[in-house]
Amino acid sequence: MKLSWKTGIILTAIAGAIISAILIFQRTNQPSIALTEEWIATQVADGDSITVRQTDGSQMSVGLCGIDASELKQGEVPGQPLAHEAKQKLLKLIAAADNQLMIVPVAKDSDGRTVAEVMAHGQGEAEISFQEELLKNGLARTRDFSVECPNQLAFEQAEKIAKASKLGIWNQSNLERH
What pLDDT score does 35 carry? Predict the structure, then answer.
């Protein structure tokens, strides 16, 4: 029985969709990264690093994907402008979420830390992206990682808002010190 060209195109499209779905599943279903989303914040190291815990006691160190916040003073190395403010903003976001966070793992960094998007449930059905909040307030800048964060475009838009408004690190006096 001879297949028509339409049937061939349809079968090819279906095969392509199946292969794409398998590749996406394999890429996102990495056993080295915890797949559970609900976590409790236990520590904030700085404006872009937190430690989280699940109810079973397992912990994970998380770097916020796609952003770089100013560094706090470490030993003899002086802190960068607005590092304390970035950490305080992250603490406030976590407190507003009653420490209940959604972690969307993206990759592992060279230190073994999970690089992830971090969110919390906001008013109604809205989700609050911690990265976007830090960026919109000028307390972080976008950063290129070897992997792209799912909401990277939104992060870039949030950074543009802060730049245009000259907020935080984008304020001229802070740019000179940063």
Answer: 47
Task: Output phi, psi for 76, to 5 deg.
Answer: -85, -15
Q: 94 by DSSP, 3-state: which?
A: helix
Q: Are 132 and 117 in contact (CB under 8 A)?
A: no
Contact criterion met (CB below 8 Å) for 70 and 86: yes
Rounded to 5°, the CA angle 99-43-175 comes to 100
The two tokens of residue 114 are: 């999970």
Query: Which band of pLDDT confidence, cut at 50, 70 and 90, is reported for residue 131?
Result: very high
88: nearest Cα among 139, 131, 14, 15:
139
What phi and psi values does residue 163 have, to the nearest 5 degrees? Answer: -60, -45
Query: Which position has the higher pLDDT, 78 or 142?
Result: 142
The helix, strand and coil proportions of the chain, stated in percent and rounded to the nearest 5, come to: 40, 25, 35
Quick check: 108 and 32 in contact, CB under 8 A? yes
Identify the H or E element spanning 5: helix 5-28
- Secondary structure of residue 92 in the 3-state scheme: helix
Q: How far is it, in rounded angstroms, from Cα 134 to Cα 168?
A: 10
User: Smallest Cα–Cα separation from 51: which of 122, 103, 120?
Assistant: 103
